[in-house]
Specification:
The structure is a single chain. This protein is an alpha/beta fold and 183 residues long. It has one domain (2-90, 123-176): P-loop containing nucleotide triphosphate hydrolases (Rossmann fold), CATH 3.40.50. The chain has seven helices and six strands; from the N terminus they run E-H-E-H-H-E-H-H-E-H-H-E-E. The protein has a six-stranded mixed β-sheet with strand order 2-3-1-4-5-6, sandwiched between helices. The protein is globular. The relative contact order is 0.20.
Length: 183
C-alpha cells in the first residue's frame, strides 16, 4: 500500500491534486483544511482542533494499513520535523500491525482463506507541489479572500523533501501539474 504525503504552501493546489490522486488510486484522504473548517464550525478551540486532526490522521492511516488501502495525507508538511513526525506515526502503526500478526498466526490463515490480502509493506511517497509563494498567495485571495502576503516570513522556509527522511519516492509537481520523478 502507498501513503501519499502532500507537501507545499497553502494555496499551491495540494487539495486539488490530492483529491484527483485519491480518486485515481482509490485512496482514503485526510484533508487537514477541510477537517479544521468543520471543527471550527463545531466550535472547537484551537487545542481541541489540533487534537482532533491528529486523531483523525491516526485513524485514517490505521484503517488504510488494516484494509491495505492507499491513503492521501493532505496538509502543508513544509518542515522536515513535521514530515518526520507523521512518518514515525506511520511506522509505529505499521510495527503494531506486524506485532499483532506475529502474535496471531490464525488471523493470517483465516484472512488468506477468505481471500483477503495481508500486506504490511507501506511505501510513503512525497508529493511536492513546487509552486512559488506569490502564485500561492494569489490563489488564496481568489479562493477565500485571504491575503497572506504579510505572512510570507512564516512560510518562507520550506524544506525540500528528501529520501533520507523515510520516503520511498518523491514526486515534484510544478504549476501545470507536470510530474518530475525524483527517486
Amino acid at each position: 500500500m502507498n501513503i501519499y504525503m502532500m507537501i507545499g504552501y497553502s494555496g499551491c493546489g495540494k487539495t486539488t491534486y490530492a483529491k484527483k490522486l485519491a480518486e485515481e488510486k482509490n485512496a482514503d484522504i485526510f484533508c487537514a483544511d477541510e477537517i479544521a473548517k468543520q471543527n471550527h464550525r463545531l466550535g472547537m478551540t484551537f487545542r481541541q482542533n489540533v487534537d482532533a486532526l491528529e486523531k483523525t490522521k491516526f485513524d485514517i492511516i490505521n484503517k488504510g494499513i488494516i484494509k491495505n488501502k492507499n491513503v492521501v495525507l493532505d496538509g502543508n508538511f513544509l518542515s522536515v520535523k513535521s514530515r518526520k513526525s507523521v512518518i514515525s506515526i506511520i511506522r509505529f502503526i505499521q510495527d503494531k500491525h506486524i506485532e499483532y500478526l506475529k502474535k496471531n498466526p490464525n488471523y493470517v490463515k483465516i484472512a488468506m482463506r477468505s481471500g483477503r490480502k495481508i500486506n504490511i509493506n507501506v511505501n510513503i511517497i512525497a508529493i511536492h507541489i513546487n509552486n512559488e509563494w506569490d502564485e500561492c498567495a494569489k490563489h488564496r485571495v481568489e479562493r477565500d479572500g485571504t491575503d497572506w502576503k504579510n505572512e510570507k516570513d512564516i512560510y518562507d522556509h520550506k524544506d525540500i523533501p528528501a529520501i533520507s527522511e523515510g520516503f520511498y519516492s518523491i514526486k515534484t509537481i510544478h504549476n501545470d501539474y507536470e510530474e518530475v520523478n525524483n527517486g
